[in-house]
Amino acid sequence: METNMKYDLLPLEEGDEDYIDHKIEEYDESVVPPDPADADERIVLKIADDDGNVVAGLIFDIGSKIMWLHVLWVDERYRRQGFASALIRKAERTAREKNCCLSIVGSFDFQAKPFYEKHGYTVYGVVEDWPKGHCNYALRKQLDRLSPDHVPFTSELLIS
Q: CA dist 25 to 22, 40, 65, 129, Å?
């Protein structure tokens, strides 16, 4: 590297973001070569009522033997009836079938941290005061170890 060079800090232009992303992926793949069998896959699960209205849903990605849980939502009118538990158990079963060994999720303190803990997730990281006055938790669960599923059903729920 030449020491007399002048460098400028500039805003990104069109295409720069893709170039930077590619360079990071290139480096990552030089350390951990990709396994074609581990391509990322997005899976969306939902629970609908008799009229077809979505009352709960879960979105997660599977890749590199990890399940990344992005969204778990239950309509307020249907909470505490086992819908979220049914969704997370189905997601974990799916992940295990695809040879995932770990599940990762984030939750703010005002969201579902206790729910995830009841399902065997443990906190491995905390960002305090984000958002202001709250905490953001990173939780994980080993999927390659047998653990009893939490079954809080209070009503009959049939999910295949």
A: 5, 14, 18, 31
Question: What is the distance between the alpha carbons of residues 116 and 125, in angstroms, rounded to a whole number?
Answer: 14
* Distance, first Cα to last Cα, the chain: 60
Residue of 102, 104, 122 lying closest to 113 (CA atoms): 122
| pTM, two decimal places | 0.77
Write the pLDDT tens digit of every residue in 37-89: 667 899 999 999 999 999 999 999 998 899 999 999 999 999 999 999 999 99
Reported as a single tens digit per residue, the pLDDT across 19-29 is: 999 999 999 88
Quick one: CA dihedral 153, 160, 57, 47, positive or negative? negative
Q: Tell me the longest C-alpha to C-alpha distance in the chain.
A: 73
SS (H, E, C) the chain: CCCCCCCCCCCCCCCHHHHHHHHHHHHHHHHCCCCHHHCCEEEEEEEECCCCCEEEEEEEEEECCEEEEEEEEECHHHCCCCHHHHHHHHHHHHHHHCCCCEEEEEEECCCCHHHHHHCCCEEEEEEECCCCCCEEEEEEEECCCCCCCCCCCCCCCCCC
Q: How confident is the model at residue 155 (pLDDT cuts 50, 70, 90)?
A: very low
